[in-house]
Every structure is written in C-alpha cells, then in structure tokens.
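Subject: Protein entry, chain in single-letter code together with its fold tokens

Category: Structural biology, sequence-to-fold work with a learned token vocabulary.

Notation: Tokens come from a learned vocabulary of local backbone shapes, not from coordinates.

Start of record: The labelled sequence and token lines come straight after this line.
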Amino acid sequence: MLEIEIRVCEALAARGLVPIEATKVMRKKASVDVARVAEIEAEVHHDVIAFVTAAAESIGPEGRFLHFGMTSSDVLDTTFALQLVEASDALEKALIKLIAAVRKQVNAHRGTVMAGRTHGIHAEPITFGLKLAGWYTELLRALDRLRAARVEISHGALSGAVGTYAMNGPDIEAEVLESLGLIVEPVSTQVVPRDRHAMFFATLATIGGGLERFATEIRHMQRTELLEALEPFGKGQKGSSAMPHKRNPILTENLSGLARLLRSYAGAAFENIALWHERDISHSSVERVIGPDATITLDFMLGRLTGVIADLDVRPEAMRRNLDITGGRLASERILLAIVDKDIARDEGYRWVQRCAMAEGDFRAAVRDDTDISRLLSQDEIEDCFDEKHALKHIDLIIDRALEKTP
C-alpha cells in the first residue's frame, strides 16, 4: 500500500504536480507502524484513512501529499492485485513440483498392470501409469488455468472516486501500474470488477477439485480389500488410538476436506460480483478472509499431495491379485466381438457371454464349455480373447502422448 502511494506521488512529481523534494523525503522516511494505524482506526473507523494518516506522520510535513487525488479503492484493489499475483507465482511453483512428482511415477509404472474400474467395478485392464498419466494431463490443464487466472487478476486501478480520473489522469495510472507489473482496468468504476476475482477463486477451486479426485482414488486403493497403493506411513506413526493394526489414509482424507473449503471460497467470490452502483464494500470483508485462506489452503494441498505421490507405496502384486479375482471376466468384450465377427447378432452374443459371466465359478472355463460359444470359436480363438496384451497395446502411445507436454 505504501509503495503504491509513493509511486503515485513520484508520477505526479514528474509532471510538476507534487514537489520532487517531497517524494525524496517520502522514499527516505516513509514507514508504517501497525500499532499506530490501529490506534487511529479506533478513532476514525476507516482503515485507509488510518493507514494514510500514520504513514504521513512518519514522513513529516511532506506527508501531506500522500493519497493525492486517490480514493481508498485505488490503493486497496491495486494492493490486492499485487498480492494475488504474488500468490499465483507461489502456487505455480508448487504445482510444477507436483507435476514433476506425478510424471516420475507415470514412467515408473507405465507397465504396472491393474484392473480398470468403472462404477467401482472391474472393467478392462489398464496400467497404473496410465491412470497417473490422466492425472498428469489434468495438472497441466490446471497450470494453464492458473496462468490465465494470474493474467485475469493482474488488473489494478488508480482512477479515483467513481473511476472518472477527475483528479489524477489516466497517464498517472498507466505509468504506475506498468511499473508494478499490472494491467490497467479499462473501466474500473472506482473498483476492479469482481468477476475477475470470481474467476480467480473459481480456478483455485477447480484445481482443488482435481487434487481431491486424485486423493479420493488413493483413498480407494488403500482400502483393506484392495491395498494397491498406500499413503506413506512414517516410522513410529500410529493409525488409531484404539486399533494398532490401522493404517488410515489421513493425508488424502485431509485433502478431500480442504477441497470443500476452496469451493466455499469460490462461492463467496461469486457473491461478491454484484455490488451496489459504482461500488460498495460488501466484498471487502469477504476478500479479507478468502484471499489469504484460499491461496494458503491450495498451497498446502499442493505440497501435501506432492509428498504423497513422491513416496506412494505402490503394490503391483496386489494389483495383479485383484485383477485376477474375476476369473478372466475382463475379457468379456473381446469374446463378444469375436462372436459378432462370426455373423451372430450382437444382442444374442451378448446373452451368451453374459450368462457365462454371471454364473459362479471360473469364467474362462464357462466360456470354453458353453455350447453356443464353443460351436463358433475354437479353443485357440477363445484363449486369444483372454490375452491382456490386446487391451494394453496402446498404453505406451497414450502415455507418450500425455508426456509430450511439459510445464
């Protein structure tokens, strides 16, 4: 806030509207005493007046030029833009670290075969690397969105009361904002329109939703019935106060909870769009909470998930064991298509395969022994349908395509 105030004065001084010597004194002496600001605010009940008064006191007589031709939103909205830009840069670094951790695991497990699942039910074989490749590409999209949101939020305003530049001209605004690395809001109406902020916080919530998706998958894979991939578990760590055998997915459960907070912050940002006339301050109290909370929450989530992914306890043997429990039923589609290829109506062939799949016992044996199927398909043709390599033949291509793009 102080830097913005001084830069406006320096721009005014360059045009002969403020004494240059006054700005030199400002640069040398200006400071902010938080306790003094609080003392003044207790009397005037206006945070920006308290800030300007305290800063002017630290400067001396030359302090009277602070806030020259400015209104509160000029300094507040421009400051908020700078804060969110800086937060975006920190989040980008954290996101890139997570992307690198996921990429490493994609390559490590591109050939680790497991059951693909839809509705929680076995579908066809995939690899764990393929699952992670989907996460990788989603994180790259998250990075693109974050970068776009950074641009969206990089708009400031120094246009004065109701945004008409009645006191300081657009040239002052343009010069100062450019020096701060910000973009001029074309029509500020005294405040930067809050649709920009809504888009920014919606982006954070969308990224958080993706992290929750990954966290939920890890939680599922850590279930006792699966034990395919587990969170890291520290030496001496305990899972339950009552049951010593417990190893709970507490880190990813925590991420699922934090994602809910991000969505609530985005909802609050959407409520901030509709302000009265040229401005009111109903948005201000909201942003004082969601600004720091949302950015800190996402930063924490990114760091936590990076640690989980980097040290994930992946168990290929459990993935293989779980893949095999259906007795080969994952080959049902290929058997159906082999029957259709023999000039049998799809619906009829579907019934044949389904009755084998729904019967108890070994599916492979049921298919071999089925009168209708065995009449059409030789034993070699049936066995070929159970070769999982057929389902996995394009996995490397998909993964390579995903990994072509880097942050």
